[in-house]
Specification:
Blueprint (H helix, E strand, L loop, with lengths): L3 E4 L2 E4 L4 E7 L8 E7 L6 E6 L6 E3 L7 E6 L4 E6 L8 E8 L16 E2 L3 E6 L1
Parallel strand pairs: 2-11
Antiparallel strand pairs: 1-3, 3-8, 4-5, 4-9, 5-6, 7-8, 9-10, 9-11
Length: about 130
């Protein structure tokens, strides 16, 4: 079992930056692909960024490319989401997720590919 705890959310003005962190329990973090999802009120949960376990290849949603960066520190069992040039439409609850399927080499982008989820952290961007 893996527990994921997100932190770093908050209120920021448009154009500002936030860095989200997700700390994972367990000794096999390095073999998990990790992803960041977000869900705004009335909308479906969507993957904004993901990183593979194998070679660190990444995925970004078109809406965040060039503004968000996902990274991982296996020594600290932590994955990060650096969010720059934030926009009001980035407002959502952000969730960290872990994919335990080591057969998957690519960065997973679909909800069903993930096995474990954090509780979420609110990000609010004011205009």
């Amino acid at each position: 079992q893996v527990q994921l705890v997100e932190s770093g959310g908050g209120l920021v003005q448009a154009g500002g930056s936030l860095r989200l962190s997700c700390a994972a329990s367990g000794r096999t973090f390095s073999s998990y692909a990790m992803g960041w999802f977000r869900q705004a009120p009335g909308k479906e949960r969507e993957c904004v960024a993901a990183i593979s376990w194998s070679d660190g290849r990444t995925y970004y949603a078109d809406s965040v490319k060039g503004r968000f960066t996902i990274s991982r520190d296996n020594a600290k069992n932590t994955v990060y989401l650096q969010m720059n040039s934030l926009k009001p439409e980035d407002t959502a609850v952000y969730y960290c997720a872990a994919d335990a399927d080591a057969r998957r080499m690519a960065a997973p982008v679909y909800l069903y590919e993930y096995d474990y989820w954090g509780q979420g952290t609110q990000v609010t961007v004011s205009s």
